[in-house]
Write a structure and sequence with these properties.
Blueprint: H1 3-23, H2 27-51, H3 84-97, H4 104-114, E1 122-124, E2 133-135, H5 136-146, E3 157-160, E4 165-171, E5 194-200, E6 202-211, H6 212-216, H7 222-248, H8 255-260, H9 267-277, E7 287-291, H10 292-299, E8 310-312, E9 320-322, E10 325-330, E11 338-340, E12 343-351, H11 353-356, E13 357-361, E14 366-370, E15 379-392, E16 398-404
Helix pairs in contact: 1-2, 3-4, 5-7
Length: 405
Amino acid sequence: MLKTDELKQEILAKRNEVEKYQQAEELEKAFNAAKELNSLIDKYEIELAKQKATFDKFFSAKDSGGFSRIDTGNYDIATPITDKAKLANRAFNKLLFNRGPLTDAERNAYYNVTGSPGSPAQIEATPSKGGYLVPTEQMAKLQEFRKEFVALKDYVSVINVNTPAGSWATYSPEDLEFQPFVEMTDIAESDVSYGQATFVVEDRGLILPVSNKLIADANIDIIGSLGRLLAQAAVRTENKEILKPLNKLITGDTESAIAAATTVTSYKALNQALFKTLDATYLQAARIFTNQDGFLWLQDLDDGTNRPLITPDVTLPNTYRYRGKEIVVVPNSTLPSTASGAKNYAPFFVGDMRSYLTLFERQGMELATSRELYFRKAGMALRATIRFGVVVTDKDAITAFKVEV
């Protein structure tokens, strides 16, 4: 085994250790582990430089600044770059596309920019068997981009798993009560019914072509331009799978099922759905999920004295509440209204979404590149994959209805 392969395994293990400490909020341990991670990365790059003799020319310059690159796989000496932002972008793109080791200037600029404990952590992913490292700054940016979109994943339970399928034990709700007994008599017996639920994690992927000219212009933050597309695609895919079981609560599979679904026509009927139809067990964590049509219907509700019944949350921008319950507005393009005859109906889902649905996720988003796929087009391929599965875990936690719009 090559020394670089051994170091990559050590880096991956150390990265997982950093993430474990971060999740446990043990910041001191996370910071110390991060320093060890950076030391391993330095060792890796030294070994990698030894293996890549073709890059000797790259180090022949007396100046330690960054240099422009032509698209031949080698590096030519050019005017040194001193702008730290450009150097940081170049360093990031080099790591992402495996385009050679960093200069001292690039390393300093990149680490100073990212500079938080545990960063840059690394992800091991290559087109074949592994070989280059992708900084977690990239994943942080994707996470930031996700916040720009309505991600229903943020409202359901998310469990990280290490296997593509699995099961867990369940039990049926029982109305158990303690029974009276007198001294030295038998105590009443009862039992609980257990069952088993299963999950399956499915693989989903997307490939984006990237021009070699774009890569060569390394001052550009490539992930900044493509990350938003990847994040939006991930959110759209997750939303679609999360909404599948929810939509069936209203639409079923036929037009007659849509017509038969409970229709709410006033705020009093909405109150009944929220405070009576929904089991009180879920009321504390309940939210109201609807689309833009449904939100407009809510906006027009008043109490008979022209006072609106939904109010803005002064602590959270662009957030509204009805009877204290948060209203989550999903775009019509994601959650469309349904038609029955000449009428259109907006869907409403009221309840505790975290109890209703669980999203089983494996390893989050993975990224890899390939030079071979678009070789004839002078480009590279950026491949993104996500692995998750959605399971209804408590069907009583949500009540669904529709309103005519």
